[in-house]
Write a structure and sequence with these properties.
This protein has 383 residues and is mainly alpha-helical. The chain has 14 helices and 3 strands. It has a 3-stranded antiparallel beta sheet with strand order 1-2-3. Helix 2 runs antiparallel to helix 3 (86-97), helix 2 (65-82) packs across helix 12 and helix 11 (281-290) packs antiparallel against helix 12 (296-320). The longest helix has 34 residues, at 3-36. The chain is elongated, with a radius of gyration of 21 Å. It starts with a helix and ends in a 6-residue tail after the last helix.
């Protein structure tokens, strides 16, 4: 096994072991919530005559393992390709594709404790998937010279405080409807913002990012035509490092930033992301492309490392609050995420910078509108 794979395997093994080790200590909370729920075959009741499903709850949805594996590949691919939307897509899978959202929602009036326990488990499960994808993507992008480590570390340090504070204040207190509605609002706002960025007015302010993206795409075209190009000297090179300014080059284009700005940005972004139970890449990528003016080719890898730090903080905090997980489902999904995350960095260079953003926008508008209607108005526009 390669050294990189050994490190990834070790980190995942530690994360799962910590969760499994702490699981028995908190098992009583979920069992108490199940016991407090009314029993029967009607909506909002625990049907004890049916086999155990999600989280071992009798009558809970039985997730199709093949669908779960394929969806996890998609989650890994989308996150490792654009550095975002992995947590959002993981959330869509858990809530809509697997039917866990509707099941949690059915307990809103009859068993609020069980409703919130399932909601927190969905939030944490999303973060396990995107955290694992972030781990693999960070290694791959670093090797490709497409990761700005000082920028990612600044965001990551800020994210530790934001993620811890947000999870500590919200765990066990959010109903599924509230969660889904706020999830939709943030995603919809993001989609509209990115739509503006792809306009001629939005593009005009990103000269450095466009120049770097163009240089990168021209190099890829040369490689595709069979021309040999030495890209080892073209990746991210740090040229100056201080507490107030970091300078680097990417494909001969110079960038610079004040590390204190991403530090503050990391606090805010991770607090929102932890509340939504996602990685935060869908906020980090716009931050990196707008504030730091990075091309998408750099934003994806830099976002991945920042997300990884934030996910570790959120998951540990959720576990400490007694949130429980369906480990069999998460284990299968992690395998799918690994496949998608290995493919993503190798295929992303074949997509244009603008088209990656447009893919992002379509997904954001679709998910945002649907979840706002479902969460706040109990209206299903799609499906």
């Amino acid at each position: 096994m390669a050294k990189k794979n050994k490190i990834i395997f070790f980190v995942v093994l530690v994360a799962l072991s910590v969760g499994l080790w702490m699981e028995p200590a908190f098992a009583g909370k979920l069992q108490d919530a199940i016991a407090a729920a009314p029993t029967g075959a009607d909506k909002g009741q625990v049907d004890t005559s049916l086999p155990a499903g999600f989280l071992g709850i009798p009558g809970a949805p039985q997730v199709n393992l093949i669908v779960a594996f394929l969806w996890a590949i998609w989650v890994g691919w989308i996150f490792s390709t654009v550095g975002a939307f992995g947590g959002v897509m993981a959330g869509v899978g858990h809530m809509s594709i697997f039917g866990l959202g509707g099941y949690a929602k059915s307990f809103k009036e009859t068993a609020p404790s069980l409703n919130k326990a399932i909601t927190d488990s969905i939030r944490g499960s999303n973060q396990y998937l995107v955290g694992f994808s972030a781990l693999i993507s960070s290694f791959n992008y670093y090797k490709m010279g497409r990761l700005v480590v000082p920028l990612a570390v600044s965001l990551g340090v800020g994210s530790i405080l934001g993620a811890w504070g947000s999870v500590s204040l919200s765990a066990g207190k959010i109903s599924f409807s509230q969660y889904q509605g706020y999830f939709g609002v943030f995603v919809l706002a993001l989609g509209l913002y990115l739509l503006y960025e792809t306009s001629s007015k939005g593009q005009a302010s990103k000269k450095n990012a466009k120049a770097a993206a163009q240089a990168f795409e021209e190099t890829v075209q040369k490689q595709k035509s069979g021309e040999k190009v030495d890209v080892s000297s073209l990746g991210v090179k740090i040229t100056k490092f201080s507490l107030t300014q970091v300078c680097f080059t990417f494909y001969s284009v110079e960038f610079k930033f004040n590390p204190l700005i991403p530090l503050v940005g990391g606090v805010v972004i991770s607090a929102i992301a932890a509340f939504l139970g996602v990685g935060g890449g869908f906020l980090l990528v716009p931050f990196l492309t707008s504030v730091a003016e990075l091309p998408m080719y750099l934003a994806a890898g830099t976002s991945a490392l920042a997300v990884l730090i934030s996910m570790i903080t959120s998951i540990v905090t959720l576990i400490s609050k007694g949130v429980q997980f369906d480990w069999a489902l998460i284990g299968l999904e992690l395998a799918g995420v690994a496949v998608g995350s290995i493919i993503g960095p190798r295929t992303s260079k074949y997509f244009s910078d603008l088209w990656l953003k447009r893919l992002f926008i379509v997904l954001a508008l679709y998910v945002g509108v649907d979840y706002v209607l479902r969460g706040f108005f109990n209206y299903r526009m799609f499906g």
